[in-house]
């Protein structure tokens, strides 16, 4: 495992914003992990009177310990009594085992169902096989795929993860009282995943958006439909937040939330257009990335444009009347193939 340097992202790039705990307003804190890439997920903290709530818990125990150390000044008198997991991807809940035994962990019912399919063992095996494959002289696309995959997964210690599932679930909406602070949890999935939820802190006006918010990078829509994602973003805009904490990336502005909404409206409209023409999801994605609309859009500069293909695939499944999620490993391979085209376009 590489040594930790707060001036670098976990993937070794220069940090584009400040790592660590950022006090927001009225006892709300954001813990940011630059640059918001794979596994560089953010965490929220809401501090009440003698009790605190942590929102998401990172991808592995090392990351979770680092996060807890940053929160220590607030936790000394206000221990963690409640934990919220915003969705089922491991980078938001595999640190749950580091939370106090007595803390109650809450998520949506749909997220708990999807969490059972997220396996640290499978990622440990994949990480090991990518490491081995990198030593082989694999040609062309296969070589690129393994090298990129190895680079992306190398910073994480999945073998040390002990899954601790949430204790309680809800559907629709619920409220939590954390030392006198009232937090509203709203289920907004399926969108990024099957059971996404967002946390609205009415006292401070802070919204913790989970992976409904990827900032400065293309959001990945595993489940969809885009229409649910648009509706979730509209809830944030209507709330009129004082501060917006994304699942990945720096603290967000309302303008960035509005750009995400326009992106998903564009994605849905274009996917429908190319689906009607009979184009495959992969060809439609390439056409969208090559279009003038894309080149002049707010999202042309977002990192990881290739993840658009997952969103187009999700819209195609909806248009075909299908349900269920894609195979994430197969999708990752498709995204890497599209990345080389996107990089060529950017040059
Ligand atoms: Zn995430």
Automatic annotation (TrEMBL):
Domain Metallo-beta-lactamase intervals: 40-248
Keywords per UniProt: Hydrolase
InterPro entries for this protein: Metallo-B-lactamas (IPR001279), NDM-1-like (IPR050855), RibonucZ/Hydroxyglut_hydro (IPR036866)
Pfam families for this protein: Lactamase_B (PF00753)
Parts of the chain that traverse the membrane: none
Species this protein is from: Mycolicibacterium brumae
GO molecular function: hydrolase activity
Protein name as it appears in the record: MBL fold metallo-hydrolase
Gene3D superfamilies with a match to the protein in the record: Ribonuclease Z/Hydroxyacylglutathione hydrolase-like (3.60.15.10)
